[in-house]
Design brief:
The protein is an alpha/beta fold and 299 residues long. Among the domains are: 1-69, Winged helix-like DNA-binding domain superfamily/Winged helix DNA-binding domain (Arc Repressor Mutant, subunit A); 163-270, 3-Layer(aba) Sandwich (D-Maltodextrin-Binding Protein, domain 2). The chain has helices at residues 3-15, 18-25, 29-43, 59-85, 99-116, 129-138, 183-188, 199-210, 227-235, 249-254, 283-295; strands at residues 48-51, 54-57, 91-97, 120-126, 143-146, 155-170, 180-182, 190-194, 219-224, 241-244, 257-263, 268-276.
Length: 299
């Protein structure tokens, strides 16, 4: 077993495909299969099941993946530390983002960062807030940016960006020409919520609670597992929802969706830099955090 084989294994798990992993690493598919077979022989068990068209880790494979990601992260930290010793910023950084920062904020930040530091590569893993926090604690990620705070004392969080959610409706909705609605109006309207674990859902829950309401007071008609799914649900008149205007900026510009405030309901929230309390930031991670703070100085 070596780090290169573990890197190949992780790529197969993340892409759920031997062929896609081969393309990503620039190896042939038989070579990828051979490395996985060597790992299975080394550990004496099957690590990946070939189900239909997907490669899915077994229970043993899931366990190995967690440890492999930590080992690869430590490798990256080692290379970065030695590069810094020689006065350079280089290496590989694995970060994560919940839906809004992961899709709409971090890619631009990473692009600008890499333009400044061309010897750096960055991987962005996207999941709901709970997953990103858990992956940060387990060592899969060195840094996360999420849309909700946590009381877990193992986690260190720092406000990065302030965000304000709005009630989003389609242009044909009877509220489309309004600037605001009352909370009681919102409670009576068909509403789409995000899945449990979502930072958006947690922020809505907190906002409602501060005003004496709860999720149970909403007329929930659908639960959807991504911001994009919620946006499509709104466009197709399943219901309305509360979303960050960042996520629907293009639709707001074209007028296909409209944003409204809710009287007496504070829908402001923050996106948080999230790290494990028990892991020291690598030089590359510290450089990226500093870059983010300069990019968003008003946080």
């Amino acid at each position: 077993m070596d780090l290169w084989q573990l890197n190949i294994f992780c790529k197969v798990v993340e892409l759920k495909s031997f062929s896609k992993a081969a393309d990503a690493i620039h190896l042939s598919q038989p070579t990828i299969s051979s490395h996985i077979k060597d790992l299975e022989n080394h550990f004496g068990c099957r690590l990946i099941d070939r189900l239909s068209k997907e490669a899915i880790p077994t229970k043993a494979g899931e366990l190995l993946y967690d440890y492999a990601r930590r080992l690869l992260s430590l490798r990256d930290e080692t290379e970065t530390a030695l590069a810094e010793f020689h006065g350079k910023i280089k290496g590989h950084l694995v970060i994560g983002g919940s839906t809004i920062p992961g899709v709409y904020i971090l890619p631009r930040a990473v692009g600008d960062f890499i333009n400044n530091y061309p010897d750096v590569t960055v991987s962005i893993i996207i999941g709901d807030t709970e997953k990103i926090i858990q992956d940060t604690l387990s060592g899969v990620l060195e840094l996360g940016v999420v849309g909700a705070g946590t009381v877990d004392k193992r986690v260190s969080q720092e406000k990065l960006i302030e965000d304000e959610m709005s009630v989003i409706v389609p242009e044909s909705h009877r509220w489309a020409k309004r600037k605001s609605i009352t909370a009681d109006m919102l409670m009576r309207e068909p509403f789409i919520i995000r899945e449990r674990g979502s930072g958006t859902l947690k922020s809505i829950q907190n906002s409602l609670s501060r005003s004496g309401y709860s999720i149970a007071d909403l007329r929930v008609v659908a639960e959807m597992g991504s911001t994009e799914a919620v946006i499509q649900g709104i466009k197709n008149k399943v219901g309305v929802s509360c979303l960050s205007c960042i996520a629907v900026s293009d639709e707001l510009k074209t007028g296909t969706l409209k944003a409204l405030t809710v009287e007496s309901l504070d829908l402001r929230r923050c996106f948080y830099l999230t790290r494990s309390e028990y892991r020291s930031a690598s030089p590359l991670c510290r450089a990226f955090i500093s870059f983010l703070k300069k990019m968003f100085p008003t946080a």
